[in-house]
Amino acid sequence: MHFDKVSFASIGATLPTEVWSSQQLEQFLRPLYERLKLPEGRLALMSGIHERRVWDAGTLPSEPSIQSGLAAIEASGIAPAEIGCLIHASVCRDFLEPATASRVHHGLGLGEDCWVYDVSNACLGLLNGVVQIANLIQAGAIRAGIVLGTENSRPLLEQTIAHLNGDTSLTRKSVKPAFASLTIGSGSCAFLLSHRDLAPEGSQLKFAVAKARTQFHDLCRSDQDSAGAGMAPLMETDSERLLIEGVATGAAAFKSFQAAGGWASDSIDRSVCHQVGGKHRALMLEAMGLPVDRDVATFGWLGNTGSVALPLSVAAGAHWNQIQAGERVGMFGIGSGINSVMLGCEWGTTPVAGNLPESEPVFLAE
User: Fold this and answer.
1) Which domains can be identified in the chain, with CATH numbers?
2) Which of 89, 144, 223, 314 has the fewest beta carbons closer than 10 A?
3) Catalytically annotated residue among 18, 97, 201, 286
């Protein structure tokens, strides 16, 4: 898909204030660690994740999503009446019914003629939403649209810790499928897209590609729906196979990305990959022939924040001036299933609003 009328008008980002370090998580898991004689420092060493953030207990995803959406709207200068579509696209949502987008739409004060719905596609939800809104703008159906979401890792982390400490039958081998759950963090992000004449200095979305290798749909899955305050989710992940097949899917998608945009690897000024961890990042960049020093990463201090991981990294990169006007930016998404969505952008002066830190945390320097 190609676009010549679509801009990223603004980005809104909201982060929790409560931080759980990997060292803290290992303290929470002391019964398991002592029982299996696991070495301290294992979590950070294996993943490259030093911290992740969690929302206050009882936080509904719609609440931070409204904050992120309001920040994006204010930063853009676009009137709420111009926004013709709202998509809430995170894995986490308030309830099974109604759509979380409904409460967010009300909280943002958008108009009655706005298209309002949820999209769910694991870690790719927000990127899928970007493409849907971009197509509506390109077709002339709407003038602007907003895609946003909030991931809440607290229930998953708490349930995983309780399960690992309580199941005395676990071995070093059988505990592996739960490891990925301990890398998950919380966060919220909103992308406001518009017709270029509403944001002429904004970053231009140029093209998008998708790749589906759904024969690997069972490598990462939750055993129950995590919507609603009463749910206690657990996840089971074949991390090793998911890494291999995810990188292979990303490499295949990148070939389509290059063909669609005519972009050689050395012409991409900045890359932003899905934020899984250090090993995934290294293998993805190697497979695409892209250098680490041009890549934007946030997993070290945010963990894997699911559908908002890549958007938050784009926000942080722009906020820290790692992504600058005039640069070609590749957004390389991977989601369990396994699917990939990749976007090619020419960056402008898209404003970023919210509570991101003013500078990159020092332990991200590798």
Assistant:
1) 6-195 (3.40.47.10), 203-351 (3.40.47.10)
2) 223
3) 97
